[in-house]
## 1
Amino acid sequence: MTTQQHAAIIGGGIIGLATALELQARGWQVTLCDSAVAAREASWAAAGMLAPFNEAHGRDPAWQRGCASLQSWEPFLRRHGISPQVVDLHRNGALLPIDDARAEERSRELIGFFSKNGVHELGPSNLKDLAPHIDCNRALWLPGGQVDPRRATMAFRRKAAENGVTL
């Protein structure tokens, strides 16, 4: 005879809801508690950046976790039957304009750390084709993406309720 495990999760933002979905999928009975109205706190205000390279200072554990998180979005959504379009997931990277001495220094640092991970410099012609609205001649392309945190929060909340998570 097996006993079902129970979990109480405090906080109904993206992290709390994702945890609830994962535990529920593994057979746990889950109760999620949040005093806010329908996940309207930090997840609602977030920018939705999936950008481990933008704030990296080398191949440290924070960067490694950020890269793992970036790679896990699509499999997580598939596992829970949520379309990437529903959460407005994009994996088209980010541009870091190189328009002053500080940006020049940062670009050299990032290329030094991450050139084997896809970070590369774009010159005037490539940049003009990719982002004509950017007013500079050079930029770095950084792997990454974004998600709409409001749409993700609401999609996770709907799926949790459909799957029997007590909200």
## 2
Amino acid sequence: MGRHAKRRRAAACAAALLGGGFAPVSATASPWGREDGEAFVAFRTDRLSNTGDFAPPFDGADADRFTRVESQVYGEYGVDGRHTVVGKVVYRSSGSLDSAPPGAEEDRGLAEFEVGLQRQLKRGPRDAAALYVSVGALNGFRPLGGGGALDEGLDAEIRALYGRDLIGAEPGARAGVFIAGEVAYRRRFGAAADQIRADATLGAKLGTRWIGLVQALSTTSLRNEDPGGQDFDVVRVQASVGRRVTAHSSLHLGYSRDVLGRGVDAGDAVFVGIWTQF
């Protein structure tokens, strides 16, 4: 396996765990992209929860705790070595605990769909840069924060990505450290405010089987929402670990928590995923 392929394989694990802000904890494209004909698919389940005034009511009773389970399928396919096609589908089931009647559900069903295209701008011996554009649809689910406003309508996003190996870029390296960063503008065509999103990742590859990640994920509102639309800011920290279980798949476990925010209640999440590359 060549030097660049080794680096991209490690970075792909990091990219699949990168979040997309507070409402969806989601995968995003990697700065290193995909080679021609190379495919990557991730199956992931998150359990998110929060408490407080923004937890929506259920059957007339205020919820003391709001919880959501998300199941996501995310995929990438390399077209010609410079372009990568990206797709994502999310299914959500949301409900409450404590005050609401047992088994009460607010939302359940297909919640989000996204397609995008990434163009590789640079791929050097130690670093890579890319530009990613996407369009998506949200199907009227409530976020864990944002005053209980529905998260619905069409979105479009443009995202700049950069990644760099700090240690272990040479061929055959059994350990390494890398960083990755992303900045995005998301145009929301519904009532919600447009957003600026910024993510940063510090990753460590340990041997041929293990990878660990520490991340900071932020969403900042531009405060141009229509009446009743979402308007919130949040900073989330996330830690995760992945282990390769077969030649082409790995298991990932992680935890995330909101540490700063405006217009949202603090939430946390645990997640598990299976990543495959072929």
## 3
Amino acid sequence: MIENLSAYIIWSFAAVTISTVIFYLHAVWKTGQKTFFLLTAVVLVFLLAVHAWLAFNGFYLVQTIPSRFFLGLLPTTVILLVLYFACARRDIPIQSLQILTLLSVIRVPVEIILLSLAREGQIPQLMTFEGRNLDILSGLTAPLVAWLAFRGGNVNRPLLLGWNLLALGLLLNILTNAVLSLETPFQQFAFDQPNRGVLYFPFIWLPAIIVPVVFVSHVISLRQLLKHSFRNGWTSRIQNIRQLKINKNKEQF
């Protein structure tokens, strides 16, 4: 753990991480697919424990090529995606999409905690909203988007598509800056204050749990929205073709 760091920051971040997991599991539960929910719950609890134990024992602080940072980020992302594509065989209901949208609210407290870590000299300022990190906008706009996109029993798919793409872009932006600020041979930014804080417990849960969950939430939402749009597009074309044939037959008759 980071020495002399306020317990309030540590416990606040732990609470945000648990809230992220609960949010995501709630969205998965609303799909009505028990296997998907149970496997996802077991995997996330297991990964929380494993990454906590590894970070507590200094595993991620050892400098290697590639950085062990990726051993936190990539496995969780891949596993969650595999579980989704393997288990979620039906369309995601509107309730799940709405919860996945609201899940981004957790990005607001995450950004506040990152600012605290920067002021404690644990991460560079560019990883905060005072620097290059605008990810807080996703969290601030999530409630408004969830309200506008799902009100009246209808789904505003263009709004959701645009917002998810923008929020995903902001996530990838801060992730890129975080990776290029690590103390590795490939470091490009923040040489005066490298990105060290996220390699300690419990902040390892940011790249190992929170970022993968948020990323996969956007992937699920975008896939569902695009699949529905594609399906509706082809349905409309087929109906138009059929109507043209009917009209043509009537004219011939």
## 4
Amino acid sequence: MRVINLILVLCLGIMAFGQVAVAGSKTAVIVVDVQADFTTAHKGSLAVEGSDEAYLKDVVKATGELKAAGLPIYATQDWHPADHMSFANNNKGSKPYQLITLKDGRKQVMWPDHCVQNTDGAKILLDEAVFTKIVQKGTDSNFDSYSGFKDDGGAETAMNKTLKEAGIETLVVYGIATDYCVKATVMDGLAAGYKIVVVQDLCRGVAPDTSKAAWAEMEKAGAVLWPSLDLKKAKEL
């Protein structure tokens, strides 16, 4: 009986150690806006070039590998109300992709309606069970929100608080779009004190020139750019 009890104690101790090791991980992943409306694979209203089925398979595979390695996975999700101020349809006389001046003086790019709450276009294209938490953004009709950390009016999302409570210090970031939501999330994450790695081939950008500028801006601010996912290095971060 004593031997059995000893074995049970040892097993429980090993299990507890494993749980602490995973729970105490200081590195997490943020998958940015991999949603139907941003992909060519789903004929999205704001589809980004290169976001086809092959790209989605790569994202799903990489995310699964990072999850299996014990890293917590977070997602950002554009989640706009139908009356969102960034939609051209809600600004009389404007056209998609036009830069306009709002009544309060702010400059704003007009976008096609996209990622409207509770529509198929807003769906994240990975199994939601893989995520520790999905952080929604762009929920205020009056402000756009490229960053996963805060909107253009400065209101914070749940991202920073969630990561801090989990003891996260380093982030592996990838998703859509390089020159908008990925860049804004990375820049705000750096400003909040996180070390950040961005996986380039798991990102897709709106335009080559602005994406090139975004890579340079992120790197200059302190982000580390990986051309592709290095799972071994990710485990060691």
